[in-house]
Amino acid sequence: MMTPEERERAVQDMMAKATLEERKQMKAQQEQMKRELEQASPEERQQMAREAHMMRELGVFCKTLLPDSADPDKPIGTVAVLAAMAECSSFEALSMAIKSLEMEKQKAVVRTFITMEQALLKHATEADATALRELKIKPEKKRPLLLLLWVMYKNKTPDAVELDEHVQQYVDAGRSFATQLFMRAQVALPRQRLVQPTLAVSRTAALFVNELWSHEDDDCKRRMAEILAPADTPDAGLPYPKLELKARTVKTLELEQGNAGDLNSVSCSVPAVGFPGQSISVQVELVRLHAGLGNSAPVANCEANPQGILEAYWLYIEGHMPGGKPNALLAAKPLTVTDLTVSSCTSAPNFVAPKEAGEYKVTAHIASTSVVGCDMSLTLSFQVEEDDVPALDDVPVA
Fold first, then answer.
1. Is 90 exceeded by the pLDDT of residue 188?
2. For 233-384, which CATH class?
3. Quick check: 238 pLDDT over 80?
4. Interatomic CA distance for residues 1 and 96, integer angstroms
5. Is residue 100 exposed (0-12), middle (13-18) or buried (19+ Cβ within 10 Å)?
6. How far apart are CA 74 and CA 5, in angstroms?
7. At a CB cut-off of 8 Å and minimum separation 6, what does 79 contact?
8. DSSP string, 36-83
9. Among 93, 133, 232, 383, which is least packed, fewest CB within 10 Å?
């Protein structure tokens, strides 16, 4: 795990990566918190301290999750995400709690962790099992990771490990902490323009909150469908999403002037052609093939859902950078559904075309942080041509 000094540097690095506007907002928030702290009750001060602690943990998590500089566009796996989370100082309490037990109980807890790791290595997906096997760290530093992985895999092998009250408490505490950190990271990472960490956290969060282990496994999809619409009340639930992704690149000006044509038109499948510095949009339509199914009343009327959101997805636009530079996250836009009869969600985030002429690529990613098996992506291209219009200074005067 990180030392306190390393954690402090991680927080400083997170601040350094923030934009000027974000730093201003952070400073204003800190000043506001200071004023509120001076007027706060003891209970409110405790809440502020907890929030400040979570922000420090977020800095550690984001820092640890930074991609390898030698291969910055390499996808990040589930084990790597949870291992980064296990570096947070909150998990130091786990080792302290185990050491505080009576010797016989300590031995029993350690045996439980050994059995847990064996079960994970046997039943985890090939990618997760390989990553766990290749992780060379001391047992006391691996235990937080095992707890987090067990949250995801316990439903796959419910009888493989018997948890006593102590280990169950550790699992519950780890689940609660991780859920809070995932919620914060889903907002923080896109601001840092980090593609692979953003996608990895989104994928892992969906698995973790549903206590499932794979986005591709048919058993996981079946279980996800039952979570959305329980077997005892199938008519009172939400449908499992069936989605189709459509997208194209188009000049932003054409969209704004209504000259872009219909996204579904064959003639509109031609990649956008623009000049350096011109605004290019990625026009996206997420088609809901399951529109009209399900019963929204129990979810829409829930006090915990005042906005009535029934489905939610993230649209991430990844810019493929030339010259060996790491790809960049150009946009992160939420797509929400508040009416189950709606046939599609649309968005058209834009960016500025590169200065150099040539062909470029972007990838539109769809992800859900709450439903397993909804990830989709589509890679598109656009062309930047040299602008042969002379600058004003170069125009000859008659």
1. yes
2. mainly beta
3. yes
4. 14
5. exposed
6. 28
7. 127, 128, 131, 132, 135, 145, 149
8. HHHH--HHHHHHHHHHHHHHHHHHHHHHHTPPPTTSTTSPPPHHHHHH
9. 232
| Residue 128, number of CB atoms within 10 A of its CB | 21
Q: How many CB atoms lie within 10 A of CB 34?
A: 10
209 three-state secondary structure? helix
pTM of the model: 0.84
1-34 residue pLDDT tens: 455 565 566 656 666 666 777 777 777 777 776 7
User: In the chain, how long is the greatest CA-to-CA distance?
Assistant: 97
Contact between 387 and 276 (Cβ < 8 Å): yes
HSE of 282, CA atoms in CB hemisphere, 13 A:
31
Residue partners of 289: CB distance under 8 A and separation at least 6: 242, 243, 244
Query: At CA 82, angle to CA 13 and CA 80, rounded to 5?
Result: 75
Q: Cite the residue boundaries of each domain of the chain with CATH code 2.60.40.150.
A: 233-384
Query: What is the residue type of 115?
Result: T
Residue 129 pLDDT level (bands cut at 50, 70, 90): very high
Residue 74 makes CB contacts below 8 A (sequence gap 6+) with 67, 68, 196
Please check whether residue 374 is in contact with residue 313, taking contact to mean a CB–CB distance below 8 angstroms: yes
